[in-house]
Amino acid sequence: MRSGPGLAIQCSINQRLPCDRRLVSPPLFHLLLMHSLTSLLVAGSSLAVALSSAAISETNHIVDELEHLLVDTDGFNDAGFQKAITPCSNYVSGSQLLGRETAAQWIRVAFHDFATADVHSGTGGIDASIGFETLRPENSGSAMNDSLGFFAPFVNAHVSMADLIALSVVMSVGTCSSPNIILPLRGGRIDATEGGLFGVPEPETDLETTLSQFSQAGFHQADAIGLTICGHSVGSVHHGGFPQVVPESAVTPTNQGGGIHFDATPDIFDVDVLNEYLDWKGQRGGPLVTTDNITVRSDLRLYLSDNNATLQGLARSSSDFTSSCVSLLTRMINTVPASAHLTDPIQPIEVKPVNVSLTVDYSGRVSFSGYIRLLSSNFKSTDLVRITWSSRSGQQAPAFAAFATLAGTGNSSIFGATFYHFFNTTVDPNEGISSYTVKILQPDGKPSSSHSVTFSMEDTTIFLSAETATRADGNIALYATALSAAFVHNVTAEISAPSPQSGTISPAILKSAVTFVQNGTRGLYSLFTAAIPTPPNLRQSTLDLIAYADRGVVYKDEFRRIASVESNWN
Ligand code: HEM
């Protein structure tokens, strides 16, 4: 499932002006006539500037998608990402007898992607170039392809592999710590189209080279030491991949990869690795400190390079260790090529529309349906969710209202429980809809702690994802409608299909365009159809529907899944 389209206007019911009024004043609405707010913003006219007040924040699909992966981790609408590391000792890519751990692999993959950054030239960093670099000896081990193979089905037009690599670090550290250590996650990373520089430190790499590699990536000596001990809080060094570090004797029937842990708690992100190293007990910092082969004692060389001063500083308290790791790991995942612009840190969304959309049936009836997800300790399963909407011209009426009913919950998110409320109602096509407001009420009908959120809704151009179907010739038929009174003369779609690319497991987003033709009417709407070849990853493929009307007005229905979850797709 995905979030609803349009603009989100966050406002409290205590504010003097109703949200809808602040959205756009009634006289302006008269001027706009049939043109929805979203469409005009898309058209980029001077009106768009007038409407872009501080009260309006545009829905960011990157943020919405990553927030879903981060927050929906259990129960109803589980995104399925966190399950791979639940429990934290889990190995999602093979037998549990291999002694491998997915949560630790994810952190290591991010380090290897990051390590070849050149911050002065603004290249490399977290850009998923690691996918093209897996055959390099410096990226030895199963972690790279295991992880990218797991991430690949989550890539889409707005979720890059590089953002998933960053997300995986946030999720590993957050899930495998108690109390949960939450790194801020930003989105917007761009996937590389080829391998980058060489230069990931290896166990054999001498100290000077190691420090210069870290330095090129923006991490000087103390940062390099800190980042390494933070990373080596979880996981193991394996004989399978690193026989020069771990002897064959580590291989047993229940540890077939021959893993030796860095510390006594390899599936918990905590200070143990540091304490065990400084106190010279337990795993004493792990195989890269203790191995018999002096050449590959890379952690020991690094830690001793300032006579353990950095590590003794971090050991003052476990909160010093935690806060340093949060800072260093956050810097690591936010080291990106100069061309990438990251979003603000993603905040869990308290009231979130999910799959909120319009459809037009054969008789021209307009259905308005979707889920409202509540996430907050302020909410209870007994709360009521009421939706009211404004007509195309901005009017409100008692009939423009519906209640949503609880459809399911998810309980184990590190951000709290989620409550999913479903609604399915009809909108009078003559009146239309331009925005809707979600109000949370207590069971007795009284407003709950001032929660009222307004979102814009585009009803001029509607992609009918539930009707997408395979044709007899193997192509896929697409259906869309446009309000006839909008005088739309050209309807196109840009298709974004994650597709295999050579040299990496990571998919590339292939873009293509298709033109629709008018094919009848549905009440007040004109029906448009098109056909496209079946994309390689249909479930991840999306489209942006674009309709052109007179005087340069453009309407859009963006980021719609081609095969919707509602359709009975085979
Ligand atoms: C001088 C720097 C470093 C060297 C030479 C190094 C080397 C290694 C080696 C050889 C392994 C064993 C991998 C395997 O057996 O599959 C390993 C594991 C690991 N490394 Fe590092 N590492 C360094 C720094 C870092 C940093 C900075 C991080 C993250 C911030 C990190 C995160 C990890 C993690 C999480 C594992 C466990 C992987 C697993 O259990 O599958 N490493 N490292």
TrEMBL record:
PROSITE patterns: PEROXIDASE_4. It comes from the Eukaryota. This is Peroxidase. One of its GO terms (molecular function) is peroxidase activity. Pfam families: peroxidase (PF00141). Its EC number is 1.11.1.-. Gene3D superfamilies: 1.10.520.10. Belongs to the peroxidase family. Keywords: Heme, Iron, Metal-binding, Oxidoreductase, Peroxidase. It is an enzyme of class 1 (oxidoreductase). Signal peptide: none annotated. The keyword Metal-binding applies. Residues 159-380 form the Plant heme peroxidase family profile domain. GO terms for biological process: cellular response to oxidative stress; hydrogen peroxide catabolic process; response to reactive oxygen species. SUPFAM superfamilies: Heme-dependent peroxidases. Coiled coil: none annotated.
